[in-house]
Every structure is written in structure tokens, then in C-alpha cells.
């Protein structure tokens, strides 16, 4: 009986595996076509000043327009990374986000910054820095207005001499580096201190804790305080509740990003909220 069961489990496992592999291959094929047929769009989420709600900058977040539906990045970025397709996709993101930033600067929002998410594979590319500089030049943008977001886990996992060199040349060119999802990677602030980053993005899980667990309130506050001591700016991710905002104002957090201020919005809609106070 056990043997029979085992056998059956094996079969189920096999079918599941096969399904997963086929799904992956299909997504991979579709991603190739998506690049060719321009099926990606960027939505932009405001990063706002906590006490005023004034928009300081935007984060570009990719979506895939597939069969009239918007596919979220978590459904395809992983596969794009595994297959190397993240490189052309990432190039498109940087180019598109910078062109939009240029448009916003021309509309009079000259202080606005743009944050773009970057995968490890992009940083490992020889031409990466040159590509970014060219896009900035083509759009006549001040490089200080572009911020590249790299997740803490990626940076810890992939940081080697080459990536370290890439980060240094980005900094030399005044491009900002932001450490995304901070707090998930268990790296110490002592380690962070040695990286050439200018901004720390505190992960949503810490922001969620502000409400639920009173004692871990202090963790977010401590992170903000210590980051400031290291000369870093702090952005709080996933702020949804007014109480979280109050807490972050108390600790002098530099910017908040989350549904409380705004969801990520397409170009036309983001333009309408830029001169508003979102909080
Ligand atoms: P991320 O960079 O940490 O972006 C923040 C994510 O949190 C976004 O999800 C955003 O929509 C979501 N978010 C913002 N505020 C709130 C809130 O108040 N509540 C909740 N529940 N969620 C909130 P999204 O757009 O689905 O992106 C997910 C992840 O996909 C991003 O996390 C980033 O790691 C990755 N990603 C997005 N665009 C790109 C891209 O162009 N290139 C690369 N390599 N990765 C990207
Ligand atoms: Mg990000
Ligand atoms: Mg994040
Ligand atoms: Mg994230």
C-alpha cells in the first residue's frame, strides 16, 4: 500500500514538475515577444515628504500588458533574470523612466528624482555604466536626479570586485544608489556603512510592525536614527496607515512611499498628482 502511495506521489510530483517547467518555458517565450512587441509599461509611485505630502520623487515599477491584463513584476522578473532577458528589459526600463523624468523636468518639476530597480545581472554587464550615462546625456538630465535601487540581498550575494567597481563609477558620476528592501537581508549597519549608497529603503515588513507590535516600533525608529548617523537618507516602503506616518514623522524619516500617499500610477495619472500634497 505504501509503495502504491509512493508511486502515486511520484507521478503527481512529476506532472507538477513538468507543468512548472512548461509554464516557465512559455513565460520565457512570451517575454521574448513582449520585448519585441513593446508590451511593457511603467507605473510610477510617488515618494513623498512625510509632514507635507509633497512629491519628492518617483519609483518606476514595471508591468506587463498581456491579453488586456497587467501582469505584476513578481510573476516575470525572476524568469527574466534566470534567462538573461532582464538585461534588455532593464535597458528599456532605464530609457523609458529617464525619458519620462525629462518630460516632467520640462513641465517644471525640476527637483523630481527617479528611482529605477536594477537586477544583479545588469550590474555585471561591462557596458552598464556607459549605457546609463548615455541615457542621461541623451535626455540632458542631471545625473544626481537618478537613483538606482538594488535589493539588500542581491548586493550581499553578488558584491564582488567587479560590481564594487561599477558602484564606484556610478557614484563618481553622481548617480545615487539606494538599498531596497532593507532589513530582509540581515546585513549589519556596520557593513552597510562601507557600501557607496546614499539611501536606505526600509522594507514594508518593518513598517507593518509599527502598528502591530509596540516593542518593534523602536526597530524602525532605530534604523532611521542610525542610518542618519551614517549620512544616509531613509525611505519607508509600504506606508498604509496614518499612525505609521505619524511615527515616521517623529523619527524624521526623509520620505514615505505607500498606498497612504498613492498607488503606483501610469504616466498620465501621475502628472495630475505631482503638484498636490498627497497626505
Ligand atoms: P520594490 O522595488 O520593493 O517595490 C515596491 C513594491 O511594493 C511595489 O510592488 C509596490 O507596488 C508595492 N507597494 C508600494 N506601496 C505599497 C503599500 O502601501 N502596500 C503594499 N501592499 N504594497 C505596496 P510591485 O510594483 O508589484 O513590484 C514588486 C517588485 O518587483 C519590486 O519591489 C521590485 O523588486 C520588482 N520590480 C519592479 N519593477 C522592476 C524593474 O523595472 N526591474 C526590476 N529588476 N525589478 C522590478
Ligand atoms: Mg524598489
Ligand atoms: Mg522595496
Ligand atoms: Mg520588494
From TrEMBL:
Domain EAL: 24-278
Highest taxon listed in the record's lineage: Bacteria
Full protein name: PAS domain S-box/diguanylate cyclase (GGDEF) domain-containing protein
